[in-house]
Amino acid sequence: MARPIWSGSVSFGLVNIPVKLFSAVSRKNVRFNQIEASTGARIKQKRVSSVTGEEVDYAEIVKGYELPSGEYVTIAPEELDALDPEAVKTIDLQEFVDLVDIDPVFYDSPYYLAPSPDTQKPYKLLVTAMEEAGKVGIAKFVMRSKQYLAAIRPVDGRLMLSTMVYADELVAPTAVELFDGLDDVEVTDRELGMARQLISSLEADFEPEKFSDTYRLAVLEMIDRKVAGEEAIIAAPAEEEMGSVVDLMAALEASVAEAKKARTRHPTAKAESASKKKPAKKTTAKKKAAAKKPAKKAPAKKAAAKKTAAKKPVKKAS
Amino acid sequence: MPAAIPVRTEIAGRALKVTNLDKVLYPLVGFTKAQVIAYYVNVAPVMLAHIEDRGVTFKRWPDGITAEPFFNKRAPSHRPDWIGTCVGPGDKGKGIEYPMLSEVAALAWSANLAALEIHGPMARCGEIDSPSILVFDLDPGDPATIIECCQVALSIRSVLETIGLEAFAKTSGSTGMQLYVPLNTPHTHQHASDFALAVAQLLEKQQPNAVTANMAKKQRTNKIFIDWSQNSRHKTTIAPYSLRGKDRPTVSTPISWDEVSDGADGEWLSFEADEVLERIEEFGDLFADVVTMEQALPVGRD
Lengths: 318, 302
Known about the structure:
The structure holds 2 protein chains of 2 kinds. Helices cover 34% and strands 21% of the residues of chain A. By secondary structure, chain A is an alpha+beta fold. Chain A has a domain at 6-26 and 64-169: Ku70, Chain: A, Domain 2. In chain A, strands 1-2-6-9-8-7-5 form a 7-stranded mixed β-barrel. In chain A, strands 3-4 form a two-stranded antiparallel ribbon. In chain B, α1 (33-51) crosses α2 and α3 (146-162) crosses α5. Chain B has helices spanning 33-51, 104-112, 146-162, 189-206, 257-264, 273-283, 288-292; strands spanning 7-11, 14-18, 24-26, 31-32, 57-60, 70-72, 84-88, 96-100, 117-121, 133-140, 168-171, 177-182, 211-212, 224-227, 236-238, 254-255. Helix content of chain B is 29%, strand content 22%. Chains A and B meet through β10, α5, α6 and α7 of A and β1, β2, α1, α3 and α5 of B. β10 of chain A pairs parallel with β1 (7-11) of chain B.
C-alpha cells in the first residue's frame, strides 16, 4: 500500500475531517547511478563538516539560516513544527472557486486526499457537496516546513489535491529576454490562415493514454541491448580490501602475460596471432621499411640535423 | 575474473590504483589497457618535456576504440592530489582547470583513465597567452594521404628556411602530420595564427591543386588542408608521442626531415607504440629542440 506523505485533517467552518495525503503520480524516469568511469565504483555522497572534513551523522544536522554577517541561526525541526501547530496538521479550506478560473500554470503536483476508515461518512458528504456545487476548494496547509497553496476538487467521488505555486513565485515573461519585441511582430492574414489550417488539421480530443515517454522506452531498450551484448557494463567492484601494493610495471607485465596466455588458449588463437604478426599487407611492408630506414640515417642526423637543416637542398614537392 | 577491482600499485614513489588491466582497448590487435599504461610509462622520459608544463585535454575511450570516446578537459575531481592543474581557456570566458601531467606516474594515471589521446595547447601554463609553438596541422583530404602531406611539409619547410625558421615534423598518428615551429619567445596567438595563415595562403597560391587554406570540407578533396587555425588560444593539438584512438595503437611520432623526404617519395609513415619505443632507443627525442629552441616570427609591417 502506498505510504501517506502527510496526515492531518481538512477543515472548513466547524467541520473537521481527518485525511491522509498520497502522491497521485509515480514518476517513471529512468534512474541512473553515478559510477566512477575508471573503476565502476558507485559514487557515494558524504555529508562532511567543512571544518574537520569528517563525516557528520544525520542526527547531528540542524537547519541553519545564514545572516548577512555570515553567521548562522540554527533551527531544529521541532521549532518549526511548534511555530504554527494548527497549520502543520490542517488543510484549511478558505474559499470555493470555479475550475475554469484557475490558470493551469498554477498547478504543481497532484495528490489524493483519502479519509481514515472511520471518517468515510463526513468525507463522502464533503465530496458530494462539492460535486453538486461544481466548485474547487482553495486551501492552505503546511508540509515539510513550507506552506502550500492547494486546489481541492472532487474526481470520481474522491478528493484530489493539487499543490499550487504562489502568484509571486511565477516568473514574469519579461524575465525572458527572447520575448522582447515579440509584440511588435506583425503577421498577415494569409500567413495566419495557413497556420489556422495546420492547427485544425491536427485537432483532436485530448486522450492522455495516447502518449507515453518514448524516450524513456528507448533508453530502457538501449540498456537491454547493452545487457544482452554485455558491452559497456561495468562490473561492480568489490568494496573491501584490494590486496597489497605491487609495483606498477610488475602488475602490467603480469597482466600482459596473462592476456597472451589467454589468447593462445583461445580456439581462435591461431587466427589472432597470425593477424597480429601480419596486419594489412600493405602497411607491414611499408612500415618495416620505415622502421628500418631511420636506423641507418637518423643517428647521424640527430647531431647534424640542426646545422644541415638550413643548408640541405630540399626535395621538390611537386 | 574480477577485473574491475583496483590493483594498488606504486610507481616512482607514487601510489596509484589501476583497474581493468586486461581490458582490450584495441580489439583488432588485442592491445590491452596494461599495454597502454606500459607504453605511456616507457615513453614518459621523452614525452613529459612536451606536456609537463601545459594543461592538457584527454580523449578517453573507457570501452575501447570501438565504443564512443569523450573529450575530458576539466581535471577529474577524483584525481590523486599529486596531479596538478592549470587554468586554461573555458566556455563563456570562464577558465577551466585542466590536468597537468608532470611525472611518469601522472601519465600512468591518465592511461588508466583510458585517456588514449593527450591533446596539448600551444601555450605553456602560466603563459597561456603566449604560444611556445607555432603549428601547421596538415590534414589530407581524401584520397590524398600522408605521402602528399610530406610533400607539402617539405614546401612549408623551404618557405620557412627563407626566413631562417626551423620546423620539426611529426605524424599525427592518424591520417596527417604536423609541423611544429618552436618559438619559446613572447608571441601572441594572433601573430602565430596570422603567420601560419600567410604561409598556407602562399602555398595555396603556388600549388592550387595540392594545397588549400580553406577549412570547407569540399574544398579539400585530394588536397592537403594546412590548418593554420590550430594556433588559436583555445585549440589543442595531439601531443607528441600520444597514442591515437584508431584501429591500431598508432602514435603521433616525431620524424626526421630525411624521413619526411622518404615519405614524400612514397614511403608509408605510420608507427605503433612498440616501434616508437624502439625509435626512441635509437634516436632519442627527435622533438627535443621544440622545447628549447628560441625563434621569432617576422613582425608584420603595415
